[in-house]
Amino acid sequence: MRTLKFYAFISVCCLLPMFSGCGNNNIKTNGLISFSDGSPVVTGIVRFETPQTQYIALVQSDGTFNVNMGKGLPPGQYRVSVIDVRENETLLIDEKYENPDTSGLTFDVKPAANEPLKIIVERSKTNRPLINMKQITD
Question: pTM value?
Answer without folding.
Answer: 0.73
